[in-house]
Write the structure tokens for this entry.
Amino acid sequence: MEIIGIAKGKKSNNLILSLMLLLGIILFFVLNVAVGSVYIPFPEVIKILLGQESENQVWVNIIIKSRLPQAITACLSGSGLAIGGLLMQTLFRNPLAGPSILGISSGASLGVAFVIMFVGNIGGFAFSGIEIIGNLTVVFAAFAGSVLVLLLILFLAQKVKNNAMLLIIGIMIGYISSSLVGVLQFYSISENVHAFAIWGLASFSNISWSQMNVFIPIIFIGLFFSFLLIKPLNMLLLGENYAKNLGLNIKRSRLIIILVTGLLTAVITAFCGPLAFLGLAVPHLARMLYSTSNHKVLVPGVIFFGALLALFCNLIARMPGFDGALPVNAVTSMIGAPIVISVVLKKKKLNSFN
Amino acid sequence: MKKLLHTENLSIGFDKKRRSEIILHERINLSLNKGEFICLIGPNGAGKSTLIKTFVGFASALSGKIFLNNREIKSYSETELAKQISVVLTEKTDTANITVKELVSMGRYPYTGFFGKLTSDDLLIVNESLEQVGIIKMQDKLCGELSDGEAQKAIIAKALAQKTPIIILDEPTAFLDLPSRIEIMQLLKNLAHKAGKTIFLSTHELDLALQYSDRLILLAQGKEIKCGTPEDLVLNRDFNDFFEKDGIEFDNDSGSFISCERNEKKINILGEGREFNWVSKALKRNGFINDKNAEICIKINNSDKNKYLIVSKNKNEIKVDSVEALLFELKKPHMQHPEILSGVKESLASQPE
């Protein structure tokens, strides 16, 4: 009876943790909307969020057109990338794997670099940093680049038996795209190189409501599929042979896992730029928080944690005083990396992978 | 006996694409019967792992056929096969951070639905499997906290939860200490004899395999595969054929391997019981051979405190209380009889090769 008690205790612990994460998400979501370079009184913020009339139409515009979509983007991007990272780490049984490990975000970079620098050069015009934000051409270029790499990877995944080989191929494809980007940069005018660099720093603020119509459904489809992958992911913890012996179709699961990760990464990178860090770190943090590798707990946990961390980083980036905003990538790594280091030191070991 | 799995002219090896295949063994005709405990032994590189991989479908047969319940194994779908054969492998798992119960529950995956939700029946089977291997009390521990022996039991419990008639294990006792090895072998034998499972495992533990298995399969490159009860294989001198190397001999009486240095020094050991056996072993290890006519005599008196009495050729008597002291006395120069010395010289002379 005692043993059963402990088991139940663990389950309810996980539930409490998840509820706390959820509360954290709500809190930081509201803070994200409430805090910014323009001061808006908090009661007014709540009023506007609840759809009531406000005394100042400018405030309504700021919140509805700028801060709200930004907070939603941060939430979904954080979740999506974190799930991508979890999927890659489990598939490749490698703690250093992240959603961009297969070269998909490098593909996006290549697409964007091509548009900004190559087309810019040919046309003889310069993109400025501000101009490219929200530019639909850039979004399409990034998406096209990453989907191209994704298709290549999916094709190769069927040729290669071994996951480790696929990982190496993915990394190599990443190198190839990076080197092509380098060549493009070398022959470009500095304004365009700067514009590309700005894109490379990522931002949650590029998505308008009309683009949300594309962004939200795709992310939700990706996250939904990650729930369907819980069982295969758990089997993969045992290694490919054990998984196969438990009746798992390895090749098919591998394709679906790569497809889901690729889709999430491609869409997020297209709209927000190449977001670093979140996808790699969140799965580790979630494993430590819940102290389990069971994906039944991890998949929802990682989704919550990813959203929370992205909201937190976005809040820091937009703190009053930083006027305008810091690039998200700088904040995620600056804030996130020390958190991971401190957690690792506290735990003394990354016991998810030994 | 009911044949569960059998092979017909099976060839195993590596199929190298665009290059010629490497055949490890040809014309293998074996059968695994219900409720049997079968050990596969053979020297390193004999193809034990390849045979096991071919049986469970991780590698494909080069030619020949494998039948499971008289139906060719190729025709089984992955899920069907998962309900027929479960495996215990040597490969590393990333399970340090999941509980023993969660690990064993994975054995139910071939039977569960899309999300792997366990029914009350599944939970009952998981509990039963944990009980069968004796780790029910550790079910809420993380796998990373288990000892190697316990971890092996946990993964065996996973295989049991799979509820397959056949369990195939690749060196399940590697990396374990001797008591754990015996425990695992005992456990597996009981699963075969009491629970009616067919257990097929590869191992390097010849002595344990001889003791526990119903049938042994001997595999070595370039030799025809041999299969039979351990005793028959010993009596037919098959063990000698398969495993003897220069300087290592299979002792058909004790069923263990010995290094075949010639024992030249003669000594007469008198006594009985455990003390007699262990003193004989110690003397054998030190190059003595028991001979009634030897001039030096060891008398063992089990009731005395100084149990061991050494009587040398000139009737000198020395009493000692331990085997260590006994061996020390025997190494003293005045114990070395010319006959003994010459024997030592001879054995030294024959050493260098």
